[in-house]
Amino acid sequence: MPDPKYRRILIKLSGEQIKGTDEVVSYDMLDYLAQEIESVRQHNVEVAVVIGGGNIWRGSQSIERGMDTAQSHYMGMLGTIINGLALQDALERRGMHTRAMTAIKMDEVAEPYIRRRATRHLEKGRVIILTGGTGNPYFTTDSAAALRAAEIHAEVILMAKNGVDGIYTADPRRDSSAIRLDTLTYMDALNRGLTVMDSTALTFCMDNNIPIVVFNALEPGTIARIVMGEHVGTLVSK
User: Fold this and answer.
1) Contact 13, 26 (CB under 8 A)
2) Are 16 and 29 in contact, with CB atoms under 8 Å apart?
3) pLDDT value for 83
4) What is the pTM assigned to this prediction?
5) DSSP for 49-88?
6) SS3 breakdown of the chain: % helix, strand, coil, rounded to 5?
7) Cα dist. 9→79, 148, 149, 154, 180 in Å?
8) Is the separation of the CB atoms in 37 and 223 below 8 Å?
9) Percent of the chain with pLDDT over 90
10) Closest CA to 225 of 47, 6, 49, 32
């Protein structure tokens, strides 16, 4: 069996992926994601996951209705922790050792995020699930993914999308003439306003030279194919 191209990866999942077609959390989707992560762990690849909370709390909608922005963002962080615990359970039911870590102190629920401890968990073969965003309002979970990837020295960020197999020149669900881009530079993505991650996170990845692969999370085996070096989706790099 060939050696993996990437030995340590960070997977960015949105709350929408946890939701699936259910109202809040899809058990089938959790099991599917756990199976996808298990297939990567079989290659002894170290896996970190940063997870969103949009299936539980949509901060933008509450802010539009007058809620204080910081208050809304903190509520969203709690949503990511709920999702992280659900994913942890799904992974452990498949026999994987995991650690849920949170940027907000919540000792009875999860470990506090400490960079050296997180790195040690990875070295011991544990999947780490990083929740609570960055622990600060005004920063998205995209920014959390970029920051944590830099801190743990992840070799790549895998940006999971639902039903879209990369970055297109336009929304392929609305524009049939949209063309998928195989590769893209950080600066091109920023200048063209393409949907990779939010601009703060993308700029951080550019400054720290962290490559990003945007892929379709709903296509089985995709994560393993990327890890083993197959070109899948869209690669964003320098």
Assistant:
1) no
2) no
3) 96
4) 0.94
5) EEE--TTT--HHHHHHTT--HHHHHHHHHHHHHHHHHHHH
6) 40, 20, 40
7) 23, 11, 8, 5, 24
8) yes
9) 82
10) 6
CA distance 202 to 197: 6
Which tokens hold the place of 90? 């799904």
Count H helices, E strands: the chain? 9, 11
For residues 151 and 208, what is the distance between their CA atoms, to the nearest angstrom? Answer: 10
- Residue burial 51-63, b: 16+ Cβ < 10 Å; e: rest: bbbbbbbbbeebe
pLDDT of residue 20: 80
The whole-angstrom separation of Cα 102 and Cα 80 is 9
Condensed to tens digits (0 to 9), the pLDDT of residues 19-37 reads: 988 889 999 999 999 999 9
Average pLDDT, the chain: 94
Could you give all domains of the chain from N- to C-terminal order, each with its CATH number? 8-155+163-237 (3.40.1160.10)
Q: How far is CA 183 from CA 124, 142, 235, in A?
A: 33, 20, 5
- The residue type found at 18 is I
pLDDT of 150-203, one tens digit each?
999 999 999 999 888 899 988 888 888 889 999 999 999 999 888 789 999 999
pLDDT tens across 105-139, in order? 999 999 999 999 999 999 999 999 999 999 999 99
Neighbours of 199 (CB within 10 A): 13
What lies within 8 Å, CB to CB, of 196 at 6+ separation is: 159, 167, 184, 189, 202, 212, 214, 236
pLDDT value of position 23: 81
- For 191, residues 6+ apart whose C-beta sits below 8 A from its C-beta are none
Indicate the angle between helix axes 27-41 and 69-93, nearest 10 degrees.
70
